Amino acid sequence: MANADYETHEHDVVVIGAGGAGLRAAIEAAAQGVSVGLICKSLLGKAHTVMAEGGIAAALGNVWPEDTWQVHFRDTMRGGKMLNNWRMAQLHAQEAPERVLELERWGALFDRTKDGRILQRDFGGHRYARLAHVGDRTGLEMIRTLQYHGIHQGIDVYMECTIARLLKDGERVSGAVGYWRPHGKVVLFKAKAVVLATGGIGKAWKITSNSWEYTGDGHALALWAGADLIDMEFVQFHPTGMVWPPSVRGILVTEGVRGDGGMLKNNKGERFMFNYIPEFFKGETADNEDEADRWYDDKKSNRRTPDLLPRDEVARAINAEMKAGRGSPHGGVYLDIASRRPADYIRRRLPSMYHQFKELAGVDITKEPMEVGPTCHYVMGGVRVDADSTAATVPGLFAAGEVAGGMHGSNRLGGNSLSDLLVFGRRAGLHAALYAKDFGGPLTVDAGQVEAVAREVLEPFSRAGGENPYAIQADLQETMQSLVGLIRSERELTEALRKIETLKARAKRVRAEGARTYNPGWHTALDLRSLLAVAECCAMAALERKESRGGHTRDDHPYTDDQWGRVNVVLRLRDGALQLSREPLPEMPAELRALFQERK
Amino acid sequence: MPTFTLRVFRGDPTRGEFKDYRVEAEEGMVVLDVIHRLQATQATDLAVRWNCKAGKCGSCSAEIDGQPRLMCMTRMDLFAEGEPITVAPIRAFPLIRDLVTDVGFNFEKAKTIPPLRLKPPEPDGTYRMMQEDIDRIQEFHKCIECFLCQDVCHVIRDHEENKPAFAGPRFFIKLASLEMHPLDTRDRTAFGRTTAGVGLCNITKCCTEVCPEGIHITDNAIIPLKERVADSLDPIVWLLRKFRSQKTQPV
Ligand SMILES: Cc1cc2nc3c(=O)[nH]c(=O)nc-3n(C[C@H](O)[C@H](O)[C@H](O)COP(=O)(O)OP(=O)(O)OC[C@H]3O[C@@H](n4cnc5c(N)ncnc54)[C@H](O)[C@@H]3O)c2cc1C
Ligand code: SF4
Ligand code: SF4
Ligand code: FES
User: Rounded to whole angstroms, how far apart are CA atoms A40 and A143?
Assistant: First the structure.
């Protein structure tokens, strides 16, 4: 083999990504007795999962015994406007409670009920208080628990290592090539099975809650390896990001603020959400302030406050208020918890929000309202997978967590991501390990492919006089923000695709300055490849879907259309060209369909 | 827009120096924003770690004007416009480049801590814990692993030779959180005394002072740990403690 030139590691299962999904996958694969490598771009424990705030959704029934997996399933499907892969939503609702309890057995300490069980909080779109949480730092608890459990399971961890391409042996995936961020050397991983757990794509937008890591690498790796992506038009704009000062614009304000009593108000002091209750949710939403206020204490005889409608609804409402000139001074709306809850309650329930506003904006949320506005937050679309096994459409490739598509349909409910990571992370680790065990024949990687990736990775250094990577990234973010944002139209999307073409051409000339040791300019130059690929997928899919649904709103097609409710938009790369098709959703069995007829 | 002089360490283990950069800062900006602006405009290869930009991930630790701090939680309006602001990498760990250090020491120490050993469940198969019994440990679980406490601790800051025998304040709170965990049954006192080197700490409280999460590292974790370690050498106290802790287990 000609690969002696590069540092080489071989594993039965290689997991790319060490957030909740990747860690859970690695733990499960190791438990199956196979050798596991876990790779991540940042240090261990710094993945996006660490930032999750509000909680993890699971029908434990600790606060409301009426809560069951069926109710959770129904909420999830309705939140996703019925476009979800029903089987994923079912497995998720059924298995989430056990996954949460398992975390507890591994040392996680969730906030407690009076009788010593896991406390659950209200969140948008969830019928009952369902989110297990630790104040507003649930993700931190989750990732630390998995991390400290994981380091004792014999998993080899490769941190600050970025995967640039997957390798194929014929049809199937045979490994991955990447580079070490600290010293910049190329590294090769041979693997019988690869699990993608790379998270999302939010760095393609300007106002975002996502970090530098969210450049859609896993989406692009899968696409380049021949796998299908689905639902790429559905991007969640979280209704409440910080808007001021400018440098923190986009940083998340957890939905837990509203779950715990926070109200949205415009500059006239009106609780405007009462004007934006869609037909679809009328039956279960309070239409007046008195009922909404009573609901916090008595959920049986009152309907829920419209402040807790699903995120797509709230984000659109805030946007409309701002457009109508009823926004706050810095271009947002108000989120007020101070006038409902006492200061010590707020500090106890939402300590990091208190801290974040105090330190970064000079606002005391126990006394004043916050200013908030929509921020790019989560991508519903992703790698098309088999619900039970998480297998992608390319043999040997699996995907779980935010990088996988289908589970959340057109809109994700808050708290359903953390549970998704655990449920499908575990399934991915299990099925990747089983696949690896069944794997027959030798594990071969093609030296030519490895060489090509190594060349591609080092190319930016050879382009003296090329473009600054940060400038291209900023222009892409500007393009996506203004043309592929919360509200879209054919004209704007066409314009976006044209601009992305130009940006792709510019990215081919991008340069890296300096040396290979820890060089963020070089890393950014390489990240542009995936960032541009996912941006293009998103714009293409958004142009194709001529209706409005969940995280995809078309100005020129403002209504939800049943025809479109039966298909996914699928993207795949064939002979170097992106192909797009509409493919039917898997059909929901009758007994599950019945759940949607029973109750209003 | 106010313009600041940022004096940033540039270099690798073989050579390095502080370089001055002039950067504009808008209202509300933090040091990390200004570093990013530098990266985008004047020094594309400036090495820095960050993720969340909201004090949640513990990636962006540095020494700003000599103080160990998170760059993303240090506002520019703390500084006067005329004075240069120095930004240096944390010193207790080997330099990789510019503001990035090799914090591998911490990941190695993490692996040595004996993990949770779970007690059997209640008869109904569940585990119950009372909020008041976990308040203290939840404080420890707030740790974002910024390693600023490790950076200031004088036991290792300028004493490479102590590193093998000293886990450092971050791992003392980890140890304490496991020791106090209502579901745990393992005794880590011998480990605390020998491998972790709790005895080397002389309670200067420097770690507590720099912790961005405000964890009372010394008072709430290290001192109780030291007491346990001392008690464990006294068989009667040890027995009493075991007896007491069994009785406080929820029924
Ligand atoms: C501020 C914030 C708050 C949130 N709050 C909640 C909440 O309360 N409840 C909830 O359910 N959800 C919440 N979410 C969403 C949820 O946190 C994320 O969707 C989820 O954590 C994603 O997990 P993951 O395991 O898929 O990926 P991540 O945790 O993002 O991990 C991705 C991993 O992949 C690695 N990676 C990426 N590309 C590469 C590459 N090329 N090579 C190697 N490694 C790579 C990264 O280094 C990282 O380790 C929140 C999100 C944010 C941003
Ligand atoms: S109190 Fe102990 S652990 Fe903390 S800095 Fe001082 S010597 Fe180090
Ligand atoms: S204890 Fe505090 S200072 Fe130390 S690593 Fe944790 S958060 Fe940082
Ligand atoms: S970037 Fe996360 S703590 Fe500063």
Answer: 14
